[in-house]
Here is the input.
Amino acid sequence: MTPIVFLNTDAHMLKLYVRRLNILFFILITPIFGMAANSAETRKPIIPKHLRISWTSDPASAAVISWSTLQPTENPVIRFRIKNSDVDFSVTPTVQGRFQSVKSELYYHHANLVGLTPGTAYEFQVLENGKTSSTFYFLTASAVDRSFSLLHGGDSRSDHDTRRKMNVLIAELVKNSFEDDDLSNDIIALAHGGDYVADGSNLTQWSKWLDDHELTIGHDGRMLPVIPARGNHDKSELFNQVFGFKEKNNNYYALNLNPTVRFVTLNTEISTAGDQAKWLTRELKKSRPNYRWLLAQYHRPAYPAVKAPGTALQSWVPIFEKYNVDLVCEADGHNIKRTLPIRGNVMDSTGVVYIGEGGLGVGQRTPKTDRWYLQSPGMSDSASHVFVLTFESEHIKGKCIRLDQTLADEFSLTPRKIGKTQAFVVTGDPQYLAENANKPAKLDPYSEEANSRFIELIKKFPGQTIPKNNGGGKVSTNLLGVLVTGDLIDSADKSGENYSAMQSFEWDRYQTDYGLTGKEGKIPFPVYEVHGNHDGPQGDTFIVKDIIKRNRSRPGVTNLSENGLHYSWDWGPLHLVNLGMFVGAGSNRRNQFHYAPMGSLDFLISDLNEKVGDSGRPVILSFHLHPNGPAYDWPPQDLKLFWQSIKKFNVIALFHGHTHGSPPSRIQWNQEKFGLSVDGGLDIFNPDDSGAAKTNPNDSKNPVGVRHGFLYVELTDRPGTKRDEFIVRSIYTKDNWETHRWGETWTKKISIPER
Here is the structure.
């Protein structure tokens, strides 16, 4: 066999350009004269043979340059540098091997370029057998948020002539995209959805495909990188050898097209469940919060216009919907389609749009236009085509261009309202306890130990890893605040002896540790407390009066009761109300009961009507006493009034203190009864106490109350009204916060109305 000869001239580039003009002329006149194409047959091979570029890792800094030879070559390398620069060339060696084939002999060469500069044109040459090729160039993807365009298509097998005409059209689209100053027009790559050839184990067919792919090279040497997906006709190791994948690679991967666009390529030709679905879940969960646009491509469609659905419908569509993929690119069907937005197998304006289905050369089929997902605003058609996707800050603009350069479809997508999580901590009963002295100088040693350790834990809590058994992920680094459900200190329900001095010391210490706005104390986020029975059973202590003063400066408060004790605020869609000791009518305590409600019921009724109304917004209420009736001093008549005041609102949780009890727990209440699980029940959470430890008067070495806990709460507002989620996780200790562990997790779907 005669080895390929490399030339130090660009004459062959001129031949390629002339041939492309011949094919382009044919494309333009075919609709008029209906002629058959044969002008492409005169083109001579480009040198080096089968030159191509693949993007399979980081397009901003890496690329795989590949080509073919008829025989093994000696010391083949790529030399490259920034285009039109005077710097010395860098040199990268290649990996070469024989294509897997019994009947044909052909050798592949792959040069893996790394460490490239983003958003930069690189020129390169192939050096082989003492010869140097012509100069070609390509662009790396940008590392800044800039607009650009991407081509997508699939199924370039079978019809040799149409494939070559489509490749010439692609080259012309790329050329034209760079001829103005509008960056959004610049086409940076072709995402290919698979089925390059009819028989993926036939090297002759691959060789012809690679010959034809040379027509996408610009007359000035511009190369268009390919982002390859595997199709059902591509089932052999030749696919990996063509595009530079490692042997037996699974061919699913994700890459950045710029810092705001994540592009995921999947493989429908292996199991779509199992490892691939787990990888996809991890990828989308990680990527969705960090990218404006999230896309996927693969071969066999989940929502086909002709065939039966592929297994992606069961394996991947729920994951796409969970993480709000913006656009999915499919192939295989041999037609044109764009679905209406789909969520839960119905039309939903927040759903996922699917486009496709392959027209880069294969013969086209007639779509089944009666399928529900192809109805308006979806569409379907039949023609050889390629999609042009333009990524801008406010839109993805899509065009489907037929071979005759007419427009088959045009659409626009806007950035999603990505699910936003409101995260906060709920704790209770720190019960700061001073030493029993007329001038206290310190806390009880076990109160000191518990509260100091808890404060340090909360300071370090953001960003901590959540165990997989509790849902995984990380604690939010943007905690909105801490709810404290009363009993801030220990001694304000007592009088005489040293209690007055102890109360002052305890209250000062609480304020020093907890602060108010996240700036004054040791806790780095705002604090929202209520008073408990240890802070003033009748609401007449200086602690309660100071809470009233603090409420005037508490971050975000939008409503205060007339007496200043009860208050409400909003965190995103969530409305929160703090209601003191408990919810009851009037200001004073009822006969035979211990505690005064301080006008909490009247405030709750007016607040919910004014701030929530019929909006359907989720509501959280916090107070000190457990609502389980007289057993915890909540008068039954007030409990009934309380239920009546909240039953028409979307109350998703009640948080209380007072009962301690480690670890944190949840029960439910439906007005008729309390229980672990009650039909139509409202969730009631006990966060446990955070610091109510003290010296045992009968055994100073064995303290009491060293079991504590708190709750980490997340409310996630996702697009649509049926996918929102409320999660409460418990954290607890058995040793006064020397160690701690994650406990139970409670999760439920809730409804947050679109605003």
User: Anything to note?
Assistant: Confidence is low (pLDDT under 50) at residues 1-15, 24-45.
